[in-house]
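Sample A.
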Amino acid sequence: MTRTAILVGITMNQENFEYSMEELANLAEANAIDPVGRITQKLDRKNKATYVGKGKVDEIKSLADYEDVDLIIFNDELAPSQIRNLEELLELEVMDRTRLILDIFAERAKTREAQLQVQVARLKYELPRIVGQGEGMDQQSGKGGLKNRGAGETKLEMDRRRIKKQINQLNKELDGLVAERQVQRRQRQKNEIPVVSLVGYTNAGKSTIMNAMVAEHSQSAHKQVFEKDMLFATLETSVREIILPDKKQFLLTDTVGFVSKLPHNLVKAFRSTLEEAAEADVLIHVVDVSHEHFEAMMATTEETLAELDIIDRPMIFAYNKADLANNVMFPRREGDSLYLSAKESTGLELLVDMIKEQVFNDYKTVTLVVPFDRGDVVSYLNEHADVLETTYENEGTVLQVNAQQSDRMKFAEFIQSETQKEG
């Protein structure tokens, strides 16, 4: 059932305030909440007690009564005392931006790991906000002198201990899942398969790019990831193997999207999931170039990556949804930037070429002479490498192969000559 809400935000002359409020409306709608009104205020600093000034609180209450809304949503994270004060004054449920995002993540989380990560973040958010039931009831009834305060405080401490214990238990289970993924990651590194990670703002089209590449270049084309035109459609990290016509292969990972004012606890909770991006050979920063605030979205993504210490990876900028943008020529490459439309599968091969330049730069074309009794070597190269030419001479099978460094080292005894060639 859809609930109704009034959105409230304050601006302290920061850039992109209007965009931030628009995004708050989108977040509300993603959580089945219909924003029916909006109130903003320009302040030098936030009111410590009520976030907005007293006059604005009265204005919010008047509009809330007129529109008969279910709750009020604020565009920043509120202190526990601010939430309590506002709910008392407005006589309505108060939700801040952080809780709104946490609720969306809780709804979208599908894998056990994502569910655990969201639960940890929610509990850490709730911990300083719980109020002892006994204490709250006493305040409401006007009772509760010194005699009853002790019981209320004891209940409060019990609740806090319970939540801390729950967080520890969830973290232990998470540690086990993280350890499993680290084993898988080490195995991939051992196999020397490059990793390419898609990163970017939520709903920029990362999953669409992954699905288009899987459909074109994967033996498991049926393993499409979930994609939908909505915020936070993907919370899990998906990994797919991409095999190119020349037998080169890499792993493509699709990560959770970012959003402005992403809760710190949520970033911390998803740190282990985003390690896939931290250890990637190249990042593809996917940008919705059709969005009027795409530059602010790019800045948010870069800030979040920096918070995760993901700052030294080679990066390709994929300006997606170019078909929806005004006056954008595509497909078009400019240095490390590419304008494309994943939905129309236009520009994807250019993206593949850019990936190849980054992750297959250790390839060289070599000529090998393999004795006829070493058919195993010929079979391996035909299966795993790009064999450009095969001829036969008295000494054995002559192969011209575009091979990576590990294969060149493995079969060094058979190499007669080598020349540099781009991957």
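Sample B, a different protein:
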Amino acid sequence: MPPDITQTTITERVIRSRHGLAALDLKELWRYRELFFLLSWRNILIRYKQTYLGIAWALLQPVLTVVIFTFVFGKLAKFSSGGVPYPVFALAAIVPWQFFSNALSESSNSLIASQGMITKIYFPRLLIPASSILSGGVDLLVSILLLGVLMLWYGVSVSAHILLLPLFLLLAFITTSAVAVWFSALNVKYRDVKYVVPFIVRIGMYITPIGFMSSVVPEKWRLLYHCANPMVGVIDGFRWCLFGANFEPYWPGFFSGVAISFFLLISGAYFFRNTEKTFADVI
């Protein structure tokens, strides 16, 4: 007997507004993990598609930055590098900062760039900026390999603290995500954000201890310095893991910066998940 084509089954998905801690809904994010990895892979492919140098850009950017910082801060300003060859000293800070700046720049505009997906299908919008951050891990890995080669070239041996480096890598991801989730959500409604982010990145590069040691900041300002810029603790931690005791972080400031990063991450995710229901209409 042929099927009754006059009867159709319609599947309806009801999206209810969530409030409070339930808005985070981490279980939903986990259910969409495959989409998260697909978006991350797509971002990696798009980044180097139809570029002449391809993945070599991930090498060229830190190399040129090291050259500039070595000349400006090492040769002209003559900042101390704590007994470490200045190019190695600078690159150890450029690695996490470059990851932060690139991921922040891309993720802050990621929702606008993906408006086609947002207006047509349902999925947790938080996956979009998060995938932009994860895809930056490729450049981060390439930069770390470059740092290893440079350390071998200059004969710089690593300290025993190198075993703690994965923790500071995780902290770099957390700090980046904490800032990115706020800017990506705000950029949907306030398009001025796309002009603010490049300014923050440019200014931040020179007030973050990349070309100098954070110890040059007067003692009475160091806690405020770490609180205002949590990446200070990340960079100090990188150098401490690689070069040893001469670069030990300022722990009160470090832990204050970590606390601020976690606060920004949790509050940012909460704000994002509570406002994402309006993205399709506003974008």
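Observation for Sample B: Residues 165-189 form the longest helix (25 residues).
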